[in-house]
Design brief:
Blueprint lengths: L1 H5 L5 E4 L14 H29 L2 E6 L12 H20 L5 E6 L8 H4 L6 H5 L4 H13 L4 E2 L3 H12 L2 H13 L2
Parallel strand pairs: 1-2, 2-3, 3-4
Helix pairs in contact: 2-3
Length: about 190
């Protein structure tokens, strides 16, 4: 598939595919966990590597990688998902710096809970965060796309999510980990 993509003149890459898994890490299926890593990390890196090379040659392009507010903290009961989104954020920021001056711009969108099929697919049912605080998918996507065109490095949609990210950055990591633990465990 990547060879076929190289034949097209692609100026914008949006890495939005992702999956999650709710549950205790040791009780999860190794297949499901590795499948999540393959999609959330390996596919994103492979697509970005292949298409960014072509964009750099043309001296123009935009890359929008979708991470999550989960990128900013550990996530008990969704440990691999949170870690994979932390990877996406770190990778994207590093790549943005490496490509500085090349004409290729990298933006990372860090949405919070969003109305998509993600919660159902991740086995997150009846969680108050997933049910009451979801943002409209179209609004989140539009916000991320416009941020990419404005060449922003990182963007987070919605004031609730911005507060969540800020708390994840300023509070002690032990407190944040415990907070996420209780939010996830006692859903």
């Amino acid at each position: 598939m990547l060879k076929e993509l190289e034949a097209y003149d692609i100026d914008v890459l949006i890495n939005n595919a992702g999956k999650g898994f709710y549950g205790c890490f040791v009780e999860g299926s190794a297949f499901d966990i590795l499948d999540m890593i393959d999609l959330n990390i390996k596919a994103l890196v492979h697509l970005t590597h292949t298409l960014a090379k072509e964009m750099v040659k043309k001296k123009q392009g935009y890359i929008l990688n979708v991470a999550s507010v989960a990128s900013f903290m550990p996530g008990p009961f969704m440990s691999v998902y949170y870690a994979s989104k932390s990877f996406v954020l770190s990778f994207s920021l590093a790549l943005q710096k490496e490509l500085q001056g090349s004409g290729v711009f990298v933006t990372t969108l860090c949405p919070g809970p969003t109305k998509t099929s993600f919660a159902t697919n991740a086995n997150i049912h009846n969680h108050f965060l997933a049910s009451k605080f979801q943002d409209d998918g179209y609004k989140v996507a539009s916000y991320g796309f416009l941020a990419m065109l404005k060449r922003k490095k990182v963007c987070t949609y919605g004031w609730k999510n911005k507060i969540y990210v800020a708390l994840g950055r300023i509070l002690p990591i032990r407190f944040v980990t415990n907070m996420v633990y209780y939010l996830q465990k006692y859903r």
